[in-house]
Amino acid sequence: MDFDDTPEEAAYRAKVRDYIAAHRGELMSVSEGGRRAVDLDAAKQHQSLMYDGGLVGVTWPKEYGGQGGTQMQQAIVNQEVAKAGLAGFIGVIGLGMCGPTVIAHGSDDQKSRYLGRLLRGEDVWCQLFSEPASGSDLAALRTKAVKTDSGSWRVNGQKVWTTLAHVSDYGILLARTDPDVAKHRGLTMFVVDMHAPGVTVRPLRQMSGVAEFNEVFFDDVEIPDEERLGEVGDGWRVALTTLMSERLSLGGGGTDVGTGLDAAAAHVAKRIGELPETRQALVRQEFGRQYAASLATRYTGYRQLSAISKGAMPGPEASAGKLAGTKTGRALADLGVRLLGDEAVYAITAEGDGRWQNSQAGLPGMAIAGGTDEILRNVLGERVLGLPPEPRADKGMSFNDSLRIGASE
Ligand SMILES: Cc1cc2nc3c(=O)[nH]c(=O)nc-3n(C[C@H](O)[C@H](O)[C@H](O)COP(=O)(O)OP(=O)(O)OC[C@H]3O[C@@H](n4cnc5c(N)ncnc54)[C@H](O)[C@@H]3O)c2cc1C
To answer: Taking CA atoms, which of 39, 166, 197, 265 is between 20 and 30 Å from 5?
Structure first.
């Protein structure tokens, strides 16, 4: 990959920078976006303003309100947003996962009703996959959708760790519609109205102090058949679209995980002089090690981007980017907090925005979300290195039979 921008990319980068600079005062910063209670209206306004500048839905097709741009342009936007210290989008789950799933599997009616509002930040979306007894083994989920006489679906069950469910208008819901076939084959995907009767959302507080994910309960929730995404029983294939998009949005792609390398370098440069000389050498070594590891992750992400820009889809090797990026991001956040010394205790006031503490408390979650470190190692071992697969006790069994022998417990 050529690391310098082509003339077209440089022109695009300049356009992005100019727009951000011109609207800097109206856009939300990382610290405002990371507050304990995000101002929902302000977060929506932030996304809407970025949309007006063509900086949201960069790779989405034009016919659905996107920019029809390249992954490279998306990477440029990500880099410039990070450099400017801007907050992420309230539509992060919708833009990264739900929207691409609706584009790939939704009806024309669903696309016209949902995608434009999602892009502009008018509706917030969530992804209702994980359950108390199925996270890594997602296909073992138990939330049931049963067809009623009127042709609609009645849903009962519980989801958990649902990011942004407490502010969401819609979600994509993976549910079991047939327990008598193998677990991957009895699933169906739906769009669910999060304000429908029978949907209860309970926030869960994280160790960072924020409560951005939730438990969601479904009690006799009615979903019209028109809100099915894809065919009945084809939910696993539909979910793979979501997970593939998630891999792309979490998998590195050349952006740093955590607070960003430039910010880390500036922080070390500012603070190191306050330490005794003997400790300075240790900090330099630790920072150098993590800096080099982060650059390796960044460039591996660029290699992936090059492949994508030539039309390839991210394969299982993309798991390496998230695995390595999370590890170095966590190490840099730890170093950042240690450099704050006692000030770190005064949390949000330290360095003005508490970004080091937030990263340190938030990144362990990144090592779980979208595939835990252990699962990603399994993927790399089995599908990239060709090592023997793990034993699967429920292989070839119906979901109900696997419950009976306890293979999906
Ligand atoms: C910040 C955050 C946001 C999230 N947002 C969402 C969301 O919006 N929507 C959603 O649906 N879910 C969401 N999740 C849930 C996430 O997808 C699950 O937490 C994840 O898939 C792991 O599932 P689990 O928590 O049930 O852990 P389990 O699958 O029960 O795993 C427990 C432990 O066992 C290990 N383990 C499990 N199976 C294996 C194996 N085969 N080999 C080796 N080790 C194994 C795991 O690595 C882990 O350490 C989020 C999670 C986090 C942390």
So the answer is: 265
- Residue 269 corresponds to which tokens in the numbers above? 């440069």
d(CA 138, CA 14): 43
Cα(113)–Cα(139) distance, rounded to whole angstroms? 29
Q: Which of 90, 126, 129, 136 to mutate to test the pocket of ligand 1 (most atoms within 8 A of CB)?
A: 136
Q: What is the CATH number of the domain that holds 293?
A: 1.20.140
pLDDT at site 305: 75
Q: Are residues 131 and 203 in the same domain?
A: yes
Please, which residues have CB within 8 angstroms of residue 189's CB and are 6 or more apart in sequence? 101, 105, 172, 173, 174, 175, 228, 229, 230, 234, 235, 238, 239
- Residue 95, Cα to own-chain centre: how many angstroms? 9
Q: What is the pLDDT of residue 253?
A: 55
Q: What is the pTM of this model?
A: 0.91
Contact between 385 and 315 under an 8 Å Cβ cutoff? The reply is no
136 C-alpha to ligand 1 centroid (Å): 5
Measured in residues, the chain has a length of 409
Predicted local confidence at residue 138, as pLDDT? 96
Angle between helices 277-309 and 71-83 in degrees, nearest 10: 150
Q: Which residue, judged by its Cα, is nearest atom 23 of ligand 1?
A: 135
Q: What is the pLDDT of residue 355?
A: 80
Helices (H), 98-234: 99-105, 108-119
Q: What does the pLDDT look like over 379-403, one tens digit per residue?
A: 999 999 999 988 888 888 999 998 8
Which portions of the chain are predicted below pLDDT 50?
251, 349-351
Nearest Cα residue to atom 31 of ligand 1: 136
Does the residue 99 lie in any domain?
A: no
Domain that holds residue 211: 125-235
Q: What is the pLDDT of residue 315?
A: 75
